[in-house]
Design goal:
By secondary structure, the protein is mainly alpha-helical. It is built from eleven helices and no strands. The longest helix has 20 residues.
Length: 199
């Protein structure tokens, strides 16, 4: 496994919900980094950026995760939400992603939707590079860049996501960002024309 794919696998794990197995797997994750990343400088950079996660009590890390990613428009972990916002086109985009996963010979058995970024990072790490996968990589680069823009500097997840932009993804150019921004629709938050009553 090359270093880029190792970093993708690592990001996939670190961006998933930090349940008890996250702490139980600490030694395995550190061994994986040391075995898969041959450059000592990159190894050191990666270890320094993940170290703060293992210094937090599990409840604090879970709370940080929820506050960082859950129900946040600019930092959620769903690719099509970054690309399309609240558009009805998301349904079709999800079907297309599910088809891409199937065509890669994989079956998604997770509980999240097909556009869940940690799962897509793992997909990039394990499937051979081809045109469709390279396009998906560009789409994920846009979403990761957008999340980074919306995260505060002191958030440890920002330091981890930066690894993706440092060693795996190319930063999207202004033209790419502008084209994708035009596709995103804001949620319709207007008041309903009548009150709803529940009894």
């Amino acid at each position: 496994m090359n270093e880029e794919k190792a970093i993708l696998m690592l990001l996939s794990r670190l961006l998933d919900y930090p349940d008890t197995s996250f702490f139980e797997d600490q030694e395995t994750i550190i061994s994986f980094i040391c075995e898969s990343i041959t450059s000592e400088d990159i190894q050191k950079e990666v270890l320094n950026r993940i170290y703060p996660f293992y210094q937090m009590p599990s409840v604090q890390l879970e709370q940080l995760y929820v506050e960082t990613f859950d129900y946040k428009e600019g930092t959620n972990l769903y690719l099509t939400a970054h690309e399309l916002g609240d558009s009805r086109k998301r349904g079709f985009a999800l079907i297309q992603l599910q088809k891409l996963i199937s065509e890669a010979g994989l079956e998604y058995i997770g509980h999240d939707m097909a556009d869940y970024i940690p799962m897509l990072l793992e997909l990039l790490a394990i499937v051979p590079e081809e045109e469709k996968i390279n396009k998906l990589s560009r789409r994920i680069a846009y979403a990761v860049d957008r999340i980074l823009t919306n995260l505060p500097e002191d958030n440890p997840y920002k330091k981890v996501l930066e690894l993706g932009m440092m060693y795996v993804f190319e930063t999207p150019d202004a033209e790419e960002i502008s084209a994708l921004e035009r596709l995103r629709e804001d949620a319709d938050l207007d008041e309903l024309p009548y009150p709803l009553m529940y009894r």
